[in-house]
Specification:
Elements lengths: L5 H23 L1 E2 L10 E2 L2 H4 L8 H31 L4 H7 L2 H4 L2 H14 L6 H19 L6 H12 L4 H29 L3 H7 L6 H10 L3 H30 L1
Antiparallel strand pairs: 1-2
Helix pairs in contact: 1-12, 3-7, 3-9, 6-10, 7-9, 7-10, 8-9, 9-12, 11-12
């Protein structure tokens, strides 16, 4: 009987992929783990309990990150959907779309340094509003490019058909365009949420250390060689993306198939 190596290879690949995440969770539950000890000196939920107090500020950073990402995701998705329609029907749509790639030409830190002078002048330097606006300048072009594939001749023919039958622009938008774009709106919101959630360069420049999101906290803990809190921050950092990935697969891609 010929044996197959395929299950073993697949198991090995799964173990290699999941090992960093499992190790990160174990590290967040550990403390006093020094070389050459095989096992940590403490293993429990002591580090997680500190999330509930203000000493480490992780809970506050988590809430700030959620608020910023939700704001950036919703505003970028809605504005990107509306403005992409105007761009698609514009006679110079190729040039306008080309401008949307500009924020991605520069590194986030360089882009943030370019914006810092203007943000300082208008009072958006070192606060949550400034970070939201800065991240919006990165997420909005993504939404604009993303919805560029939605507007096509087929959608235009639907709009013309509704207009021919006596429908208003409001009815066209709410009865035709929104139902057709529902899945793309959700995907764009997930993507822009994640862009904001993992953003570091712009946040560090515009936030100047006063707006401490989870990504800022992770780098601070790593610089302090506090690997246990760093692992705990990473666990909090990947929790919302995992939830979004589940809902994305469960409710969005299922409807697209």
């Amino acid at each position: 009987m010929k044996s197959s190596w395929k299950p073993y290879i697949l198991t090995l690949i799964v173990l290699l992929i999941t090992f960093p995440f499992i190790f990160m969770v174990l590290l967040s539950l550990s403390s006093s783990w020094r070389f050459p000890d095989v096992l940590p000196g403490y293993f429990g939920f002591k580090n997680w309990v500190t999330v509930l107090n203000s000493e480490a500020g992780l809970l506050q950073s988590f809430i700030i990150s959620v608020v910023i990402s939700l704001a950036v995701g919703m505003v970028s998705t809605i504005s990107g959907f509306l403005i992409s329609r105007a761009v698609f029907y514009h006679k110079n749509k190729r040039i306008l779309t080309l401008f949307a790639y500009f924020p991605y030409v520069l590194a986030p830190v360089v882009f943030g340094a370019c914006l810092s002078f203007f943000f300082l002048k208008i009072g958006l330097f070192g606060n949550v509003t400034g970070v939201i606006v800065a991240q919006f300048l990165v997420a909005f072009p993504y939404a604009l490019i993303f919805f560029g594939s939605f507007w096509n001749k087929k959608i235009k023919s639907y709009e013309d058909l509704v207009a021919t039958l006596g429908g208003t622009s409001r009815q066209t938008f709410f009865k035709v365009l929104l139902p057709l774009a529902k899945s793309m709106l959700l995907i764009c919101f997930f993507q822009t949420f994640l862009i904001s959630w993992f953003e570091y360069g712009l946040t560090s420049i515009i936030g100047v250390g006063k707006v401490q999101t989870l990504t800022i906290k992770v780098f601070l803990f790593i610089k302090e060689a506090n690997y246990y809190y760093g692992a705990l921050s990473c666990c909090l950092l990947i929790f919302p993306p995992v939830v979004l990935l589940y809902f994305n697969k469960r409710y969005v891609f299922k409807n697209l198939v």
